[in-house]
Amino acid sequence: MTHLSNRTIGHVKVALFLVCLTPLLQLVAAGGNNMLGADPIETITRTTGSWALRLLLITLAITPLRKWTGCQWLARLRRIVGLYSFFYACLHFLTYLVFDQYFDWEGIGKDVVKRPYITVGFVSFVLLVPLAVTSTHGMMKRLGGRNWQRLHRLVYLIAAGGVMHYLWLVKRDISGPATYAAILALLLCARLVGRPRKHSLPERLSKPSLSQSARI
Is the pTM of this model over 0.90? Predict the structure, then answer.
């Protein structure tokens, strides 16, 4: 379906909102039933971090999917997925801050400096904050379309940081981060391949005069 009515898109957004909320509800249910395993904090940390990265990659996949399928309405779902990625990243960070470090700011500072996976994860989270804050249409207008796009291109750097954070965190089985890295590489290639040229040959040949071409 390349075209959907506003009403249908509204229903899709509600369904997507609930789907994205499901991992948190499952965590809450597991916690209520004492099914978080031997190390509940570790389970919460891994789950929230994994879903933050997954949803971030899904956000990046929406644009190439929209271009390939012609379903322009997919762009209207990107903000929900992106904000949910930020939401799970916040839960991931808060779990570390509250339950792992108990607000030990000195210990957190040492972790950020001495442990590479903490450093990369923290920087990625900090970079994600302005993207979430400027995700509204109002902020897009205030920044201007071009400046807004430049800022939001940081999402690829953030995704790469998230993959590195996961890769350095695991010690033996790297199949998980390797899969995410492969997906991110494919999405980067899709962006580069799908980028239109500024001046194609037909456009240059269609210019009526040298002066007009010089102005371009």
Answer: no
Q: What is the rounded CA–CA span in Å between residue 95 and residue 100?
A: 7
For residue 204, name the pLDDT band (cuts at 50, 70, 90).
very low
Between CA 152 and CA 137 the distance in angstroms is: 13
Distance CA(104)–CA(111), nearest Å, equals: 11
Judge contact between 139 and 148, C-beta under 8 A: yes
Give DSSP secondary structure letters for the chain.
Answer: -----HHHHHHHHHHHHHHHHHHHHHHHHHHHTT-S-S-HHHHHHHHHHHHHHHHHHHHHHHHHHHHHH--GGGGGGHHHHHHHHHHHHHHHHHIIIIIISTT-HHHHHHHHHH-HHHHHHHHHHHHHHHHHHT-SHHHHHHH-HHHHHHHHTHHHHHHHHHHHHHHHH-SS--HHHHHHHHHHHHHHHHHHHTPPPSS-HHHHHT---HHHHHH-
* Separation in Å, CA 215 to CA 136, 142, 146, 210: 34, 28, 20, 9
Least confident range of 131-135, 164-168, 203-207: 203-207
Q: Considering only CA atoms, which of 64, 73, 23 is closest in space to residue 47?
A: 23
**What is d(CA 99, CA 8) in angstroms, rounded to the nearest whole number?**
41
